[in-house]
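Notebook, bench 3.
Goal today: get a predicted structure for TetR/AcrR family transcriptional regulator from Pararhodobacter zhoushanensis so we can plan the truncation constructs. The sequence was checked against the plasmid map this morning, with no discrepancies at the termini. Length recorded as 198 residues. Pasting the sequence as submitted so the record is complete.
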Amino acid sequence: MAARTRAAMMEETRTKLMESARKAFAEKGFSATSMDDLTAAAGLTRGALYHNFGDKRGLLAAVVDQIDAEMAAHARRQADSSATLWDGLLAEGAAYIEMALDPEVQRIVLLDGPAFLGDPSQWPSQNRCLEATREAVTQLLADGIIRPVDIEAASRLLNGAALNAALWVAASENPSQTLPKAKLAFCVLAEGLLVARR
């Protein structure tokens, strides 16, 4: 019973810190947010932050992972509501790119994430996105919808195209004008895999 209570307390502490960080990182950005800002807003000590995340960068990594997982789930829902697997693959990529207009996603995941955590293709959340793309490409190849191509190569290129399009939209001077260009280019590139044009 005591162990369960301790585990629940630890989870509550993590949740408070992540909520505090998510709000602060979205409003101020990572570099302008101090550890004291984060802990005071959560009603906790620096020790709690160190114990649960190691440091502020570790907390950013956890927040990026959380938001990126939410982005992937949203994109997956768009894919699942599509008429065909091919349409779903395009819808998933387009949905991921569109999320670059969300201020929280833009600031935390697409701008501060790469700046402070390094190459997004190495993030655990991106590997989950890659796995979903790999599954779709495998099935599309088996169904004869796409041309013979290495599954890993096609999956990585599609996943990378969506990610880099979102990064471009987020970093552009006018994201809402960049978005349609990015989505169209993503679709045109992806359609190069089709056996026959639609």
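The CA atoms of residues 73 and 129 lie 9 Å apart. The two ends are 61 Å apart (CA to CA).
Flagging this for group meeting.
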